[in-house]
Amino acid sequence: xxxxxxxxxxxxxxxxxxxxxxxxxxxxxxxxxxxxxxxxxxxxxxxxxxxxxxxxxxxxxxxxxxxxxxxxxxxxxxxxxxxxxxxxxxxxxxxxxxxxxxxxxxxxxxxxxxxxxxxxxxxxxxxxxxxxxxxxxxxxxxxxxxxxxxxxx
Length: 153
Description:
This protein is α+β, with helices and mostly antiparallel strands. The chain contains 5 helices and 5 strands; from the N terminus they run E-H-H-H-E-E-E-H-E-H.
């Protein structure tokens, strides 16, 4: 670990070369390398995704090394003219944890949400992930909900 605070930025279509390392960092942090790196998307797909204003990819980098990342989605609501941001994944490389990087990425996401006019940022956490729960509880109240995966078709 270094004392240097990373650069926190939103990725765009010109950043496709960085996304393999960004995905690999998630895979390593979550112990799910096959999920994040086993079937990488094409460059064209990544360019389209990063150009989509409703997809938010944030990278924390020190030099050219990715040490953290966040992936979020802006969801437009139907009941009112507003949106909310779903923080789908947030990870920090093990060697850089507890150094403020996760908070810096959440701060950047909150800035993006404010500019987009989102009324809330929401996130899920697994019951067994105490560090994530502690982090997210520091931002607002916890809701107990059930999550269901419904297969297509």
